[in-house]
Amino acid sequence: MPTPVRIFVAARPLPLPPAPGEVGHAAAPVPVQRTSSLPRKKAKTVTEQLLEELAEAGGRVVEREASGRETEKWPIRVAAARRSGKIPATKELHAGWCRDGYEIRLVDTPAWRLAVLPPVPVPARLPTPHPVVRALQAHPQPMALTKAVQSRAFRLIHALLTATQRLGFTSAFGTAESAPAPHRRRGGSPHFTITAQGQRCDFLILQEQDRTDHIPTKKELADAEKHSWAKIPRYDHSPAERLRICVSGGLPHRAGEWADTTSRPLEDQLAEIVQEASPRQPESSTSKRRNKHGAVQRAWPSTSTPSASTQRPSRPDRRGTEPRHGSPGPPTTWSA
Question: Given a cut of 60, is residue 68 above it in pLDDT?
Answer without folding.
Answer: no
